[in-house]
Amino acid sequence: MCDLLVLHYGDHISARTLPPVDELVLTILSQNTTDTNARRAFEALKARYSSWDDVAGAPPSDVADAIRSSGAFRVKAKRIQTALREIRRRMGSIDLSSLAEMSLEEAKQFLTSLHGVGPKTAAIVLLFSFHRPVLPVDTHVYRVTRRLGLIDSRVSREKAHIILEGMIPPECIFSLNHNLVRHGRFVCRARSPKCDECFLFEICDYALVGDAGSIRQG
Ligand code: SF4
Fold it and tell me: Is residue 105 domain-shared with residue 186, that is, in the same domain?
């Protein structure tokens, strides 16, 4: 499946190489909104404050105002400020570079112990900022891998991180993340997947058996 996706879409390495704290904040901002809105909010935040310490210490309403374009801005401001303060308390400064020295499991545990940080956000930080082989299971990855039959349709998204990571060779993960998202956006869409023009048809449970009711969204 990895090979078929690479043949079709290419062997992509993400161009995103933000420092880890920036990646963490951007990923929190991108929760339940578009990449464009999240990026706009991130840039507004960087323009308003000169450091992450300044963001951590600012009045919550000011931070919320700066990130208004990301939606749910009060909740996200609280998540960002709490996470930044927690990083400072536990690391001595707002710096996540020491995650590079931790085992993958320790790094994941550290990140997911922060307020508002789940397995997907942790995986994005580890994949993009540290090039560690962790697969972020976003809505597209979750839907496509369930339809293909790689994971059971009843498995939660949190559990899907563990199952998929155990079955995918680490060297595939970079391109797989990019290619599954692309496939989910343009071919294996939530509504009306284009199965009749899909190059994965022959190996797809959904196409061969059909399970349209249970794996529509995700
Ligand atoms: S065959 Fe259909 S359901 Fe299966 S991966 Fe392709 S588009 Fe998705």
Answer: no
